């Protein structure tokens, strides 16, 4: 699961850089306004899971949520099929 968290955070960082570039060059504020908060919340969830004790009763549900969210990057070369929920 640590690999999935690292993968997801890396993809979010890539997206943040791409959206910043779009905003700077094309003025894509509407795109940023709608997507950046979701990226931030997904990153927060991934980092909280990474810090969570495995015995925490929420860990299984959070792990499932991260697997679902990671599916949006299923076409990325580093995505692993075993991460599918």
TrEMBL record:
<dbReference type="InterPro" id="IPR046193">
    <property type="entry name" value="DUF6221"/>
</dbReference>
<dbReference type="Pfam" id="PF19730">
    <property type="entry name" value="DUF6221"/>
</dbReference>
<protein>
    <submittedName>
        <fullName>Uncharacterized protein</fullName>
    </submittedName>
</protein>
């Amino acid at each position: 699961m640590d690999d999935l968290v690292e993968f997801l955070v890396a993809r979010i960082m890539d997206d943040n850089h791409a959206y910043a570039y779009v905003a700077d060059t094309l003025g894509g504020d509407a795109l940023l306004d709608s997507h950046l908060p979701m990226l931030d919340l997904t990153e927060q969830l991934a980092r909280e899971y990474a810090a969570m004790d495995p015995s925490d009763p929420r860990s299984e549900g959070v792990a499932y949520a991260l697997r679902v969210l990671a599916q949006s990057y299923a076409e990325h070369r580093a995505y692993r099929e075993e991460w599918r929920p």
